[in-house]
Amino acid sequence: MHGYDYALIVAFLALVLLPAPYLGRFYYRAMEGQRTLLTPVLQPLENACYRLAGVNAKAEQSWRAYAVALLAFNLAGFALLWLLLMLQGYLPLNHEQLPGLDWALAFNTATSFVTNTNWQAYSGEASLSYFSQMAGLTVQNFVSAATGLAVLVALCRGIARRCAHAIGNFWVDLTRATLYGLLPLCLVLALILVGQGVPQTFAHYVHAVTLQGVDQVIPLGPAASQIAIKQLGTNGGGFFGVNSAHPFENPTALSNLLELVSIILIPAALVFTFGHYVKDLRQSRAIIACMLALLLIGGAVSLVAESQPNPALNVPGVEQAAPLEGKESRFGTTASVLWSVTTTAASNGSVNAMHDSLNPLSGMVAMVNMMLGEVVFGGVGAGLYGMLLNVLIAVFLAGLMIGRTPEYLGKKLGAREVQLLVASLLVMPIGVLVLGAIAAVVPQGVAAISNPGPHGFSQLLYAYTSAAANNGSAFGGFGANTTFHNLMLSLAMWIGRLGYILPVLALAGSLAMKNAAPVNGNTFPTHGPLFVVLLTVTLLLVGGLTFLPTLALGPIAEHLNLGF
With CB atoms 3.0 to 4.6 Å apart as the test, which of 374, 413, 419, 495 could cross-link to 347 if both were Cys? Predict the structure, then answer.
């Protein structure tokens, strides 16, 4: 590694962590309707949205009403996007006369963007019109991220409130999350990206002739606006097929750093938002310490693995460099590794290098980040509410060890809360192990694998892990665009999304109705180093016990076969 590699890592961490407390406080005030710097500008628009939708902003909902509203909104968005993609050929802003998508691919794509997964079994510039990219995918990038933020806020209220029967209003939370939480940052980032060379135009694709006399089509489009929200909303879907490895999506070293920071900027800030809700920022510092530790551990393992020469290319007497297969020479090894770790630690899925070319241990780190439920910062809202579920599990385990009824911030965890926590623990095993096992034994599933041996199994394992974790990245050699995988992966995405959201909302409703016990000397502290260690170990143990056998069949076996 060189000096600029260390400078990149330091700059990345500084740009994420330094503004997080201030941005977190802004999100708390915005989501609770308190005055912020943007209130004079955005409040008239917010009120206009309520009037147009017929929403009473002062009326709050129980967790059941909140869940019904969320499901209705997301299912309506899914149906609309599914139809839009299939009817694309008849809709405007289709300069290249692209036909509508096949029904199964459209179903998969609609599911993917509604669930904040952004799994793409197609190449954007060759398959989707400008209208589909804007009115379909970009809209869902905003509202799917806003949905995750709304659910997090509902859980924060459930933990913070005392003897309450309501956890907020979904329509209000969705509106505020979009207008205050996402739109301003996206406008700023989009303008910066345009300045760096990312296209934002309705012009036709450019036809050119290369120096070799070959005709070439250069795709254009309104890319900057979608790239801004795909990163800040932890969505990840690329405007172009190779995502952020494409020079039009990610043209410079500065754009690479800013897009990388954007992936976990909001998730890091929301950790401090939670601290403001419970009036204890020590809880925020403990959670972010755990997240940061897991990110650094994964990053260190992946960076060491990617810096080693490939033994298969070893030539006696010839010094071998680190492999650059699948990496952009514009960014190099460190920037590619930092992105691969960050994008899988968040439910983002964007890539600036091809994960199929990662060394086995680096690929395993990416998979483990997702198998943990993508709680290492995770998605907008989704990462923190997933982490809070693990916090409650750690508290429950601590209660068992000391023989006391577990409680968190004064709220005792009873049988109902534990049942909901157990239900959330089943989400990833069902989405990855059950559906992945079916795909591994069905001929239509196996046909998508392009490599023999352990790496081929890793391709399939990565795909179902990515879908269930609502990530969206992939090992590129996996041929996912078949009716079988389009439908199976869609099922994994819905399980990974609603399998967490519904228990979280039920948990929020249950905790909101409880009174808080006073803190005393016997209360287990959840803000110190001991709890950070307990939480980290809990995450690794739960993930390890669940997925270690499958990892042994895939990346671990592949690594051992390299002959290190």
Answer: 374
